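seq as requested:
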Amino acid sequence: MKRFEDFKKLDQLEKERENKIIKTSIFGIIGNAVLAIFKIFIGMKSNSIAILVDAVNNLSDAGSSVITIVGTKLAGKEADNKHPFGYGRIEYLSAMVISVIILYVGITSLVEAVKKIFNPIEPSYSLMSIIIVSLSVRVKLVIAHYFLKVGEEVKSDSLINSGQDSKLDSIVSLSILLAAGIFVMFNISLEAYLGAIISIIIIKSAIDMLSKTISQLLGEKIDPELAQVVIKTVENFPGVEGASALVLNNYGPNDWNGSIDIGVPETYTAEEFDEIIRDIQLEVYYKHNIILTAVGAYPINKSNRKIINIKDEIREIIFSHEHIDGLHGLYVDEIDKEIRFDVIISLDAKDRLELLEEVVSDVKYHFPAYTIEAFPNIDYAGR
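struct tokens:
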């Protein structure tokens, strides 16, 4: 019953996360829409291309928040037969759409700014326009802080992207104020040039956000800190003689599943092994919200002094090779004369399979009486 209550608690936390994202996005829609309306009005009245570019950017920010809400709602759909891993990755797609919109705004704004460089129109700043732009700096900083705070809290890339963009917008509005001051004092118009610079900054920001989102969709290495806490949780179980080969697949910001291998005494029965697997799966899910779809095991022989010496020698042989990052599952079967192990080979190795063959040949050379069974592995946490 306790575990059932734990599952209900995790489900409730996920619903609370969704509500926070939606409320934050609504706040962004209202704030950016109001700013855009005022900036369009003063931009047209003062012939300021920079203010108009900034207004269009605010409109795109409001649209981004709408996409965030839609993406969050779709991502919250329950898993079904077509998508048994759920719809969590839609949040990454929504973050990608936001990046593309910002990129489009930056490119079109750059085109318009360049046109104004060759066909300049003298701006006419009023006190009201300067006041509104000044207020927009403060408002965008508030929006940025709020978006980034909630985004980090609920692990929403869409909110984080929007927050970073809002922080950038505040700098843009500040630069517009600076240009207005220069024009008022020295009668030098930097409008078109400033519009071009703003557009280039927007384009770079969009490309950075798009690159990050694509990387997440392709699949990134496991966060080393997350990997360590999961492994520590597993290794704390009585009877577990080490945990390794952790693989985690991400299906949304808070949606992970994967597998892990554990070392257990070679005397363990199937019943004992089944019991410890179930306990590990439940504990990891409750503590870290990660579903371990598979828990593999390798036997540990540590009572025979001869075998312990053989294993020590094998370790020295294996780690004498360059690009070997780890070793696990090492087992020496004296009855069937087998040596089994998984070796972690760095992705920097020129030819990983060739290196594995060299390692196996080296172990075989020192232990010719044994059959060698080796499997290449990758450290997915990238530690």
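The chain has a mean pLDDT of 84.
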